[in-house]
Amino acid sequence: xxxxxxxxxxxxxxxxxxxxxxxxxxxxxxxxxxxxxxxxxxxxxxxxxxxxxxxxxxxxxxxxxxxxxxxxxxxxxxxxxxxxxxxxxxxxxxxxxxxxxxxxxxxxxxxxxxxxxxxxxxxxxxxxxxxxxxxxxxxxxxxxxxxxxxxxxxxxxxxxxxxxxxxxxxxxxxxxxxxxxxxxxxxxxxxxxxxxxxxxxxxxxxxxxxxxxxxxxxxxxxxxxxxxxxxxxxxxxxxxxxxxxxxxxxx
Length: 251
Known about the structure:
With 251 residues, the chain is mostly helical. The protein folds into two domains: 2-95, no CATH class; 144-232. It contains ten helices and four strands. It has helices spanning 2-20, 54-67, 83-95, 108-123, 137-164, 166-172, 177-190, 200-204, 208-223, 225-232, and strands at residues 29-32, 47-51, 128-130, 133-135. The protein has a two-stranded antiparallel sheet with strand order 1-2. The chain has a two-stranded antiparallel ribbon with strand order 3-4. It starts with a helix and ends in a 19-residue tail after the last helix. The mean pLDDT is 86.
């Protein structure tokens, strides 16, 4: 159900973002642009020529959006999408696909359990249930832990890479678009998608620390944050005692 939800919600969100600025959208229109020796397209030199057929627009959005969660193929340059669309793509790559697939990310089941957990808290229930089955509390805690640690990992990677390669990114992107482009690059590595917004030459010019961080993020995204933690966790016997409970005010 989560897979189907993302399959329809992703393209609809991106279609809405691009449609809201369809007169200047490079997804809705054909264009010509002057390109420098590094393969960088100057936004100021883009000249929109004709509108694309509706069928081509819809197919490009569906194909590229669905590809963010598994294959990494693209039918158009990912930088043709607006900053808002690329942010949605980054979120989809952060989520990833099913646990049994070769995709990375936090996985669709983790997202499902988090949603169910939030709904359970909102309804004041004690147990997380789905399809007349109860999800173990340990699994629920692990899902929230994976989401939290993955968010921290991507956020730290974004900060480190931006600080290390700001000079290169400022040449490729203008203003705040550098952060969005870097977010797509990191989530692409975390989801092991390979849909990089940078060319090979631009990737080569990134800092050494940035490249190392991307490698680590790619490794943890493929292995899974939960499995990475278990690999370093020591086996321990069940505790024979427990501490007294005490309420803590939260929220």
